[in-house]
Amino acid sequence: MAEVIENVYKPEDGRERKIEKKVFGGKEFDVVYVKGKPGKTKEEMDAMRASGDLNVDPAAQSFSYCAKLNPHSYQAGPGIICEQDQACILRDGTTIYCDIYRPSDTTEKVPVIVSWGYFGKRPAEGQDDWKLMGVPPKTVSTMAKFESADPGYWCRNGYAVANVDARGVGNSEGEVNLWGSQDAQDGYDFIEWVTSLTWCNGKAALFGNSGVCMANWKIASTQPPHLAALAAFEGQSDLYRESYFCGGIPNPEYEYNIMKEVACKTWIEDTCTMVEREPLWNEYWADKQLDFKKVKVPTYATGGWVHHHLRGSLEGWRRIRSPKKWLRIHRDFEWPDSYHNSTMEELKLFFDRYCKDINNGWEFTPKVRVQVMDAYDYDYTDGYRVEKEWPIKRTQYKKLYLNAKEMDGGPEQYSEQAEVSYDPNTETTEFLIPVTEDMEITGYMKLHLWMECRGHNNMDLFPWVLKYDSNKEYVPIEVMGAPYRGAWGFCRATHVAKADTATDYQPIQAHTDFVPFEPGEIRPVDIEFYPHSRIWHKGEYIVVRMAGRFIQTEWFHDASMKHEVDNGNGIHVIHTGGEYDSYLQVPVVPPKWVSGDYVYRR
Fold first, then answer.
1. How far apart (Å, rounded) are the C-alpha atoms in residues 142 and 131?
2. 96-123 per-position pLDDT tens digit
3. What is the 3-state secondary structure (H, E, C) of 533-580?
4. Do the beta carbons of residue 9 and residue 272 sit within 8 Å?
5. Could you read off the pLDDT of 152-172 as tens digits, one per residue?
6. Mean confidence (pLDDT) of the chain
7. What angle do CA 441, 443, 445 make, to 5 degrees?
8. How many helices (H) and strands (E) does the chain have?
9. Handedness of CA 570, 576, 578, 583 (dihedral sign)
10. 90 alpha-carbon distance from chain centroid
């Protein structure tokens, strides 16, 4: 008889579930696992495509495809040999499988780039046309794992690439454990195994964006002796705050879309059900957070201003202990940035320096580079601006006080008390703050609000900071041809405690307790924003838009964000003026140098 498990996310999917006892941080948890789907063959996926049943999203196709186990070697391309379905035995006896691509026209030992993750090691075989959104066709070879190093480029530049199916994925044995310490330990074992092979020079690098990067952060924290370099391109480093619970607000749907597509013949950790069962921060979620201080390998990290991985990328770079680390913050989306020719050439310099000991001048690379956005597809500066640190040291944090009487704001606190209310389920409200001089906002914004909840004991807040022109018309940012709003944040206002890492400009919530609103209570709420960088010109408006739900736009990624809000039938009330000093704090970055009328920003 199947085990009856209560409090399950999407029980209507009909998938079998079980509970396993696991210990995290010295505390035992009942961890739910869901029966995996073994994956589709090429023929099955072609038939599904022909019938219109298969999602055309390349990610979904990548996750679902699973070829039969077939260990052999073959010529994958000019000068490239592939050793397919090679077995690696982990420390507990579990066997996982990888495809290793390496140069076939050299006897020189080469370093290996490890592509780790849950997304299937030969995704192109499962598609009628191997493609990545925003990347020109044929830019990436069919040998590449999704969001990972392309053997078609790296093998021709003196590297091997190991595409790995992690524990439980595809034909690999065991159960899939998502993003935690078990996965990281397995990555350690794999690196030590693959670097011991006869063709390897004894050095490995980790590279990948998004989900691959999330696994790479954790693997690097285990400190494999033969890991020489980490390229962490846009990956979350704190999954509780950045994925499963955005600002404490449950968001299991995004991860469910990943979990349900992974090809697995055994069981997958049902993290979405764990969101339902473990809503507060505890040892279970801590196991999925990066242990920042343990990452000491040379690291090159990137973050995109418009991506939900942004916070994790920048937090990872800031808090790791590597004495050699570089950060590039760009305005593009993850895939076109990762596979752009300039990115690959620069990444080769980084890997050559630390995986091949080539003295190529990589150390001249600025520690921090930032693209400052303006409007549509225009940037305020041409290319990247060089900085020495992040956040930028010369930042001036300025308060812009909100005025609910006129729905505007300014640099001085308003003496007259006022309030504005909105229905979080159907309405939004906006404050338009006039800009009196050109202003660059780059860094961490904070929203300090005095909030009241009428008719309910909880409120979930979704603030955005937008740009309006002098005619009070919305000015978007354009990325991959689609408009994107601006800076965003999330906050479950009943999670009042601050984390130990919180600062005045970044009020990180601890999420360890739930303190309900009392009738008539007016509570100060500090909301953390994801970092942002944009120019506001004189005569424009900084707009603070408040909502009680995630509002979808034309931006394609919005469709995946279906947060489980808890606003009941309550009404949100914002109090301003008098004793209620509600304000938006903005990180104003002054020019590096001013001489008379001349302003030097680069």
1. 9
2. 999 999 999 899 999 999 999 898 999 8
3. EEEECCCCEEEEEEECCCCCCCCHHHHHCCCCCCCCCCEEEEEEECCE
4. yes
5. 999 999 999 999 999 999 999
6. 94
7. 80
8. 12, 36
9. positive
10. 28
Query: Could you give the CA distance from residue 133 to residue 57 in angstroms, rounded to a whole number?
Result: 9
- Tell me how crowded residue 415 is: count the other CB atoms within 10 A of its CB: 7
Tell me the sheet residues that pair with 569. none
Tokens of 345: 């050439």
Backbone angles phi, psi at 202, to 5 degrees: 90, 10
The amino acid that residue 101 corresponds to is Y
Q: Are 299 and 371 in contact (CB under 8 A)?
A: no
Q: What's the CA gap between 222 and 423, in Å, rounded?
A: 47
Q: Is 517 helix (H, G, I), strand (E, B) or coil?
A: coil
Q: Report which of 320, 316, 319, 442 is spatially closest to residue 369, judged by C-alpha positions.
A: 442
| pLDDT, greater one: 19 or 592 | 19
Summarize the confidence of residues 46-61 as an average pLDDT. 65
CB of 582 within 8 A of CB of 400?
Answer: no
Strands 541-547 and 428-434: antiparallel
Position 111 scores a pLDDT of 98
Provide the pLDDT for residue 602: 66
Token pair of 299 as six digits: 């690291």
Identify the H or E element spanning 151. Answer: helix 151-154
| Residue ranges in 432-509 assigned as alpha helix (H) | none
Instruction: Please determine, for residue 29, whether its predicted confidence score (pLDDT) is greater than 50.
Output: yes
Number of CB atoms found within 10 A of residue 239's CB: 22
The sign one gets for the Cα dihedral 391, 448, 253, 177 is positive
Q: How confident is the model at residue 217 (pLDDT cuts 50, 70, 90)?
A: very high
End-to-end CA distance of the chain: 68
Three-state DSSP at 289 gives strand
DSSP string over 319-358: H---SSEEEEEESS-HHHHHTSHHHHHHHHHHHHHHHS--
Whether the Cβ atoms of residue 33 and residue 20 lie closer than 8 Å to each other: yes
Residue 303 has pLDDT above 90, yes or no: yes
Exposure string (b/e) for 346-366, b if CB count within 10 Å is 16 or more?
bbbebbbbbbbeeeeebeeee
59: Cα within 13 Å, side-chain hemisphere: 17
pLDDT of 260 strictly over 90: no
Q: Both tokens of residue 53? A: 């049943």
Single-letter code of the amino acid located at 295:
V
Q: How far apart are CA 264 and CA 36, in angstroms?
A: 5
Q: Which residues of 302-323 are buried (b: 16+ CB within 10 A; e: fewer)?
A: bbbbbbbbbbbbbbbbbebebe
The SS3 assignment for 141 reads: coil
Secondary structure E strands in 191-250: 200-209, 227-233, 245-246, 249-250
pLDDT computed for residue 1 by the predictor? 39
Q: Which residues contact 319 (CB under 8 A, 6 or more apart)?
A: 292, 293, 501
Residue 57 confidence (pLDDT): 54
Render the burial of 565-586: b for 16+ CB within 10 Å, e for the rest: bbbeebbbbbbbbeebbbbbbb
